[in-house]
Amino acid sequence: MPSTKTRVNKVANVVIPVADQERALTFYVDTLGFEKRVDLPFGGKYRWIEVGLPGQDTTIALAPPPEGTSAGHRETGISLQTDDVDAYYAQLKQSGVDVDAEIMRMGDPVPPMFWFRDPEGNSLLVVQ
Hints:
Elements: E1 13-17, H1 21-31, E2 35-42, E3 46-52, E4 59-63, E5 75-81, H2 85-94, E6 98-99, E7 113-117, E8 123-127
């Protein structure tokens, strides 16, 4: 039974502030395999973009940074799951993605994992 302490029922999206939304959109869709879900103007001069993985509800918003702040080089806190960390690592590396030098293998119960950076230096984690 859901808790009565909150009215929140899901994580809708997470936001990564990016300076170049078109470049970020191309990376997340063409390189990582996300789908573009939303691409709308807002606030007169801004653009709201959301990408998501096929069959999944939660999206990543590739949004302009808040006024007075910069974009890029952030630890996003986003982790992506894969069933084959070695194949995905090789695929990203072959595509020219900035991936860690090697996959971290700490042994059970910790799964193999690696970090990669998007074109603006934002870090995401991949875990098997």
